Amino acid sequence: MKNFSTPDSLFRRTFALLAIALLALVAGCSTIRFTYNQGDTLLYWWLDSYVDFEGTQADVAKRDINKLFQWHRQTQLKDYAALLGTFQRELGGTPTQAVLITGYREMRVRGERLALHAVPEMTTLAMSITPEQIGNIESKFNKKNEEYRRKFVTGDAEKRQKARYKKSMEQFELWFGNFTSEQETIMRRASDARPLDAHIWLEERQWRQRRILAMLRKVQLEKLNREQTTAQVQAMLRDIFGRLESPERKSFYDNYIDQTTKYILTAIRTATPAQKAHAQQRMQGWIQDFQALAAGK
Question: What is the pTM of this model?
């Protein structure tokens, strides 16, 4: 099922076309095809907002993004449709927390698959980045971190719990439609029972950002060749993906997955038959859209 409250990171949004597919889901079933068909442009604009491309960098970035999208459309979207079909069938029964955890891990596998496929494109980009552009990326990181800190980390517990609850309910309402006041009370109670750990998520996103910047600086300062840069990109990906199993963070991530899937399960168990039918219909629309996109429509 959907993964809630996971913070954004350059790594996940720069090199994951999966983010575009999930962005399409968030946009709603009527706009998936439009959003995905504009995804190469959206991803380029997003990257440019961090890097500020110069000269031929822009043309190369557009070429590589287009190539990656072609691969993604031709090889991945049918799988997304099949995975959504599994979620749809599970929702028609009585899904367990184990089922939700499996779904979470399935999404993670697809994200890793995409990132590893994009290593050549990441390598090309990393080799072209200038010191000034590294500064641009770092400045954008700092700006986004301050926005996140202001919204989710600072203030009293009530303010932070309310912001987190509001963010998650926007996503739940996308799936199930409107909730009654009684349902909202249940969901708010379940949301507030989760640890207020936004400060740890901020630490994690800053850790990823430092790892990305360190890789880019090493490539630039040492003038690494393509083979050496590829090795650095692959090492960075191993570190980022391996973070979930690292000794210093494994217990945190395990607890996050446990608490998040319990929260999603509360929404499912609270939903009425009509709301579950709404979610299944929405999923069917997404499935059809992914199938159409895979067919080139």
Answer: 0.84
Please check whether residue 8 is in contact with residue 205, taking contact to mean a CB–CB distance below 8 angstroms: yes
Q: What is the pLDDT of residues 178-232, one digit of tens each?
A: 999 999 999 999 999 999 999 999 999 999 999 999 999 999 999 999 999 999 9
Tokens in use for 70?
A: 């072609």
Any alpha helices (H) in the chain, and if so which ranges? 10-14, 17-27, 32-37, 39-51, 56-75, 77-91, 97-117, 119-128, 131-148, 157-176, 181-192, 198-221, 226-242, 250-270, 273-294
In degrees and rounded to multiples of 5, residue 118 shows phi and psi of -85, 5
Measured between alpha carbons, how far is residue 206 from residues 73, 239, 295 in Å? Answer: 32, 14, 39
User: Looking at the chain, how many residues does it have?
Assistant: 297
For the stretch 28-45, what's the b/e string if a residue is b when 16 or more beta carbons lie within 10 angstroms of its beta carbon? ebeebbebbeebbeebbe
CA dist., res. 70 & res. 130, Å (int): 28
Residue 106 one-letter amino acid:
E
The residue ranges of every structural domain in the chain are 10-294
Structure tokens, 41 = 């442009």
Nearest to 184 by CA among 200, 199, 173: 173
